[in-house]
Write a structure and sequence with these properties.
The complex is a heterodimer of chains A (about 280) and B (about 525). Chain A is an alpha/beta fold and about 280 residues long. Chain A has eleven helices and ten strands. The longest helix of chain A has 21 residues, at about 125-145. Chain A is globular and about 75 Å long. Chain A starts with 6 loop residues before the first strand and ends in a 7-residue tail after the last helix. The model of chain A has no long low-confidence stretch (mean pLDDT about 85). In chain B, about 75% of the residues lie in helices and about 0% in strands. Chain B has a two-stranded antiparallel sheet with strand order 1-2. The longest helix of chain B is centred in the first third of the chain and has 32 residues, at about 80-110. At the A-B interface, helix 2, helix 3, helix 4 and helix 5 of A face helix 16, helix 17, helix 18, helix 19 and helix 23 of B.
Chain lengths: ~280, ~525
């Protein structure tokens, strides 16, 4: 019996570059079991690239990614899903012309065994699996609160529901680790609150570790155990929400250096605008 | 006002140009003859009567004018006088154009010049038909009467319908019927009725071969062979989303394998029908594997070009003199074997079926088998994975679908089905040659899938009837058959871009269980 690994995911010194541009430079991250870790950073900081690296979309130029002590560098994404990592996407990517249940059935792909021959011959395995997977899909839908939409086309769902559906689909393969790319983007305060609740339940009830990218600081500060801050592809800080909030480098990354003069500059510009002859020009 | 004026003239010109074009290719008189036959079944001969041509001319103007008025009225309304004036203007414009043509043609005729050198369809007889067998001035007056009446009728109809909103009411009424139709409610109430109806249709189809004449049997045979092909291609294009153009290659592989195994020449194997059929399917599937593996990483148009090339390679190979010893070369393979009827049918029905009837039954049975297979595949994990790939390949792979192997699987199964269709086709004709595997076969198979509705099984059958059956129904149109056929296809794709019978998603969800079950389920 092997010992249980310390971390569900370990990314060590990851570097990815596109041509001359180094998108991610020497970034490391350890994800403990059942933790929620946020990645933040200004636009173009390399967050999604880093995400793509650990979910197998890109292969790293250097560094290693270990999933439960098992290297997963450069293996195809379907095998990554097989191991138990799933993800959602920044711009929602559902199978739009399929129903909600069918979307989740696709998410369960790695857990199903029946082949096309089983399907043609209607073997008992095929029937059993079909029944079980549909039941599981319905359970998952109930869990994320989308039972009412079960047989609608995915493209007809409202925006917030589509985000939830993506999460339900990602849960289909019994993941140990869930990667959420901006789960609250474009949501109103109520929807955001509901999403925070859902993410917390994912961890508490289903014991899944979660890594998420998010711009909404309220969400990030609310749910994260630990926050990783990237800027220009480099890790500039990592720590608890309290530590990050008081970190001078993080503030600089977001607002630029010399922020102390910001208020002054703003009032100066406002005054200049008031003086301007044409009020509509800006 | 000014825009109405200029737009009316514009639409009048459109109507006129349509009339001129139809006359120059002699389409008008063909249609006029059909029109007459509708009302007068005793009518024989191919010369259209003046009245029919006039009515047809008026109808063309009428439809154009009515379309114009209806569209125009959406933005702003016009007075009755303006509308009538607009209709009149359109009629006059169209009349001027068509008369101009007839004056020119009439002058040529009077001078005794034959213009068939330039316009193939316009013989002196045609011209005199269009001139109503009278002189030019008389004909011009008649054309003007027709077009002006057409324009006026359109404006009057539009006036009446817009004042009383008749068309709106009618369309609402139709919508109501369609939405709340008793049949649909009835079917929803008693689900087994759907099964019974389906059974009735199947029985009707199975009675067809003994009911219809030999010509219809041969048409039905082709229709069902194309339906089989369509089902196979539907797996590749409609479900897995790979635009494969050279589908004819697999069809040819099946036909030639079957032919070589059962014909006395060139190899003299003369195998039985069924083992030869199975080997043909197998060889076509291997062909699918050979094509499927290299194209696995190609998408969209690149895929189309590569598979197109493959189709051409097969066609050129079977046509080449180099391989003539093996494939019969340009002459093809003759005396391909046919299946023998089992003695059982003769016992049950007293006498054996005619050969063509029996073969149609065979095609039907094989069609049902293929139908069952593709139906099972489509509504299984495999079919869903194909559809997910079609929707978003990257995400499908990240969800755990092994995209490359599923792609190859789709091509292999599709190829096997095409091989089956090809083998039946060769056996039915007892002959196969390179001329039968032109690019058009691939295009037709693709059209079957697209017209019926991508990924839809009943749509494919419907598509086969339209692509292969409809041209036969249009035989009355003679030379204009394909023209009208093309126009119908265009119209269908504009009216129903998703195909005639788009896929209906199934209701799958069941009542959820408690979260405890889910927790246990999701335990890593």
């Amino acid at each position: 019996m092997t010992t249980k690994p310390a971390y569900v995911l370990e990314a060590n010194n990851i570097t990815i570059s596109f041509g001359g541009l180094t998108a991610v430079n020497d970034v490391s991250l350890q994800v403990p079991f059942q933790s929620i870790i946020s990645i933040i950073g200004p636009n173009g900081a390399g967050k999604t690239t880093f995400f793509n690296a650990i979910s197998g979309f890109y292969s790293c130029d250097s560094g290693t990614v270990l999933f439960q002590d098992r290297p997963i560098n450069g293996i195809p994404t379907d095998e990554v899903a097989n191991l138990g990592i799933s993800r959602t996407y920044q711009n929602i990517r559902l199978f739009t012309n399929m129903t909600v249940v069918e979307n989740i059935l696709i998410g369960q792909q790695p857990r199903l065994r029946s082949t096309f021959l089983d399907a043609i011959l209607q073997t008992s395995r095929n029937r059993r699996e079909e029944k079980q997977s549909i039941q599981k899909a319905s359970n998952l839908l109930d869990f994320v609160g989308l039972s009412a939409y079960a047989d609608d086309m995915a493209k007809n769902l409202p925006y917030g529901a589509q985000r939830r559906l993506e999460i339900a689909r990602a849960l289909g393969n019994n993941p140990h680790l869930l990667l959420l790319d901006e789960p609250c983007a474009g949501m109103n305060p109520q929807e955001t609150a509901a999403m925070i609740e859902l993410i917390k339940t994912l961890r508490s009830q289903l014991k899944i570790a979660i890594v998420l990218i998010e711009h909404d600081m309220k969400v990030v500060m609310n749910i994260s155990d630990s926050i990783l801050v990237l800027d220009h592809g480099e890790k500039i800080a990592q720590g608890t929400p309290e530590e990050i909030q008081s970190d001078q480098r993080v503030v600089e990354a977001y607002l630029g250096s010399g922020t102390e003069n910001l208020v002054e500059k703003y009032s100066q510009r406002k005054a200049a605008n008031r003086k301007a002859v044409q009020p509509h020009v800006f | 006002m000014k825009t109405l004026f200029s737009k009316s003239i514009q639409f009048g010109i459109i109507a006129g140009v349509i009339l001129i074009f139809s006359e120059l290719i002699n389409l008008t008189s063909t249609f006029a003859v059909i029109l007459e036959k509708l009302f007068n079944s005793a009518k024989t001969g191919k010369t259209a009567s003046p009245l029919a041509i006039q009515i047809l001319t008026g109808l063309v103007v009428f439809f154009i004018a009515y379309t114009f008025l209806r569209k125009k009225n959406g933005s702003k309304s016009h007075t009755a006088g303006q509308e009538i004036g607009s209709g009149l203007l359109m009629g006059i414009t169209a009349g001027i154009l068509i008369s101009l043509l007839n004056v020119i043609l009439g002058t040529y005729l009077a001078k005794g010049q034959d213009i068939r050198n330039y316009l193939d369809a316009v013989s002196p007889e045609v011209i005199s038909t269009f001139l109503f067998q009278t002189d030019i001035a008389n004909a011009v007056i008649r054309y003007f009467i027709a077009t002006i009446l057409g324009g006026l009728a359109a404006s009057l109809l539009h006036l009446v319908s817009s004042k009383t909103n008749v068309s709106g009411k009618i369309s609402k009424f139709i919508q109501k019927i369609v939405q709340q139709s008793k049949i649909r409610i009835f079917l929803n109430k008693y689900p087994y009725m759907t099964t019974i109806l389906t059974l009735l249709v199947v029985i009707a189809v199975f009675l067809l071969p003994v009911l219809v004449n030999a010509y219809a049997i041969s048409v039905l045979g082709i229709v069902f062979i194309y339906a089989i092909m369509g089902l196979g291609l539907n797996l590749i294009v409609g479900l897995s989303g790979q635009l494969v153009f050279g589908y004819v290659a697999f069809y040819a592989l099946g036909a030639y394998t079957f032919g070589l195994l059962t014909a006395p020449k060139p190899f003299g194997i003369e195998m039985n029908f069924w083992p030869a059929l199975i080997i043909a399917i197998f060889i076509a599937a291997i062909g699918g594997l050979f094509v499927g593996v290299p194209i696995m990483n190609l998408r969209g148009d690149y895929l189309a070009i590569v598979t197109l090339g493959f189709g051409e390679i097969i066609r050129i190979l079977i046509n080449s003199n180099l391989l003539a010893d093996f494939t019969g070369g340009p002459q093809g393979i003759k005396n391909i074997g046919q299946p023998t009827q089992p003695a059982l049918t003769a016992k049950i029905f007293g006498k054996p079926f005619d050969d063509n009837v029996w073969f149609l039954y065979l095609i039907l049975i094989l069609f049902l088998v293929v139908l069952y297979v593709v139906f099972r595949l489509q509504y299984s994990r495999t079919g869903r994975s194909w559809e997910a790939m079609r929707e978003d390949e990257t995400v499908a792979q990240a969800c755990g679908v092994t995209v490359s192997s599923y792609k190859v699987l789709a091509v292999v199964i599709g190829a096997a089905i095409a091989g089956l269709a090809g083998a039946i086709y060769a056996s039915r004709n007892t002959y196969t040659g390179p001329g039968e595997y032109a690019f058009m076969v691939s295009v037709n198979a693709l059209a079957v899938v697209v017209i019926g509705g991508m990924g839809s099984i009943p749509g494919t059958l419907l598509g086969a009837f339209i692509i292969k059956g409809l041209p036969e129904l249009l035989r009355d149109l003679e030379n204009y058959r394909m023209l009208v056929f093309g126009a119908l296809l265009i119209a269908m794709m504009i009216i129903r871009p998703e195909g005639i019978w788009p896929v209906k998603r199934r209701t799958l969800s069941v009542t959820p269980e408690s979260i405890e079950v889910l927790k246990k389920d999701l335990k890593p």
